[in-house]
Specification:
With 328 residues, this protein is α/β, with parallel strands linked by helices. Helices cover 43% and strands 12% of the residues. It has helices at 8-24, 49-60, 72-84, 110-119, 121-131, 135-156, 161-164, 172-180, 196-199, 204-218, 241-244, 309-327; strands spanning 2-4, 65-70, 90-96, 187-193, 264-267, 275-281, 288-289, 293-297. The strands form 2 sheets. It has a 6-stranded mixed beta sheet, sandwiched between helices. A two-stranded antiparallel sheet has the order 7-8. It is globular and about 60 Å long. Residues 1-8 have low confidence and may be disordered.
C-alpha cells in the first residue's frame, strides 16, 4: 500500500479509518508508505515522481502497490503511474479530490476578486457575521492572497512547480490516461462538492449567491450561459468538480441524478470502463477556506475529506475488489 498525500499531517487523519475499513473487508497484511508529496510551493509532479518511485521500489520491490493520492498528491500518483507504471506492480490507483484540470483561482485577477466581493457582498456579510468576523477584512484578505499568488505566478513560477501544476490545463497529458484508465490498472476517482449552506450557518439564499460567485472564481472556463444550478459549477471549496473528475468544462457524461447525501458510485462512461467514480456531496476539501480567508473555519463538516470514515470505506471496498481479482 502506498499512500501519496499533500502532507503527512493530512494522511495522518485518514490512515486509522482506512486501516479499520480494510480490516472489515478482511485485509490486514498491508504496509503503508506515505512520503510527503508537498513542501510549500516547490514540490509535486516533476520534483517528486522519480524520488517517490525510487522509494517505493526500494521498500516494496515487486510487491503489489496501490496508489492513493489526495489533492495534489493525486497528481503525483497519476504521473507516477504514467512514468513508472511498467516498472512497478501497480494494482490500482485512487484519486481523491485531485485537481486534474487545476484550480482557476490561481489565475484570478485582482479585478475578479473585487468583482466577487462586490457581487456577493450581502452574502459575505452574513457569512462574516456567522463567524464573528468583519466582511471588509475578509475582502482585503482575499485581495492580499490573490496579490501574493499573482507575484508568485509572475516572478517565481520557475521555482514553484507545485503551484504551476495547479494551473488550469497544465496537466492535459494526464487527462485521457486517467479517464480511460490503463487496461491493467483500474482507477477510482472520488469527487466531492459542498454548498456554503452545508458548512456555514447562513440562509439558503446567501449560500446560493456565494456558491455561484465563488464557483466563477474557481473556474476559468465558464460559459455565460451557465446557471447557478449547473452541475459544472459545483466545487469542494477549493477544486472545481469537473477538475476532480478529470473532465474539461462539461460533466454531461456523468449522471448525477439520484446522488444522495451519503454519496454514490457511478460507472465510467463509454471508453472509460476501467475507471469508477464515486461522488460525495456535502464534503469540503479542507478545514478552512484559504482562498477567501484562512480564518474561515468550516463549522459543520469540520473534518477534511480524508478523515471521513465513509471515504475510507469506499476506498477499502475498491481495493479489496482489486486484490481478490488479482488473487483469482
Amino acid at each position: 500500500m502506498h499512500g501519496l498525500t499533500e502532507s503527512q499531517d493530512t494522511f495522518y487523519h485518514f490512515e486509522p479509518n482506512l486501516r479499520k475499513a480494510l480490516q472489515e473487508v478482511g485485509l490486514t497484511n498491508i504496509a503503508f508508505i506515505y512520503p510527503v508529496a508537498r513542501e510549500g510551493f516547490s514540490s509535486v509532479v516533476s520534483l517528486y515522481v522519480d524520488h517517490i518511485f525510487k522509494e517505493i521500489k526500494k521498500q516494496v520491490g515487486d510487491a503489489p502497490v496501490h496508489l492513493i493520492g489526495y489533492s495534489q498528491g493525486g497528481l503525483v500518483a497519476g504521473y507516477l503511474e504514467k512514468k513508472h507504471g511498467d516498472e512497478l506492480n501497480i494494482v490500482s490507483s485512487t484519486y481523491i479530490s485531485t485537481p486534474f484540470r487545476g484550480v482557476g483561482a490561481i489565475k484570478a485577477t485582482q479585478s475578479e476578486v473585487k468583482e466577487f466581493s462586490r457581487n456577493a457582498s450581502g452574502a459575505l456579510e452574513k457569512l462574516a457575521n456567522s463567524q464573528g468576523l468583519d466582511r471588509q477584512k475578509i475582502c482585503k484578505e482575499m485581495q492580499r492572497n490573490q496579490m501574493l499568488l499573482s507575484v508568485i505566478r509572475t516572478l517565481l513560477l520557475p521555482f514553484t512547480k507545485g503551484l504551476g501544476a495547479l494551473k488550469p490545463d497544465n496537466n492535459q497529458d494526464l487527462l485521457d490516461d486517467i479517464r480511460k484508465g490503463s487496461p491493467k490498472i483500474p482507477h477510482l476517482i472520488i469527487g466531492s462538492y459542498v454548498s456554503f449552506g452545508d458548512i456555514f450557518d447562513i440562509s439558503p439564499e446567501a449560500a446560493k449567491i456565494l456558491d455561484w460567485h465563488y464557483a466563477k472564481l474557481l473556474k476559468k472556463d465558464i460559459s455565460p450561459n451557465f446557471t447557478p444550478e449547473d452541475n459544472s459549477m459545483k466545487n469542494d471549496t477549493m477544486v472545481p468538480f469537473p477538475s476532480q473528475l478529470a473532465r474539461r468544462g462539461s460533466i454531461d457524461d456523468i449522471n448525477l441524478a439520484g446522488i444522495k447525501d451519503s454519496g454514490s458510485e457511478i460507472p465510467g462512461p463509454k471508453g472509460c470502463e476501467n475507471t469508477t467514480y464515486y461522488v460525495l456531496p456535502k464534503t469540503a476539501h479542507a478545514w478552512n477556506l484559504p482562498i477567501i480567508d484562512g480564518n474561515l473555519y468550516i463549522q459543520k463538516n469540520s473534518r477534511p475529506i480524508l478523515a471521513s470514515p465513509q471515504v475510507a470505506s469506499v476506498v477499502a471496498a475498491f481495493l479489496s475488489k482489486q486484490i481478490w481479482k488479482a488473487d483469482d
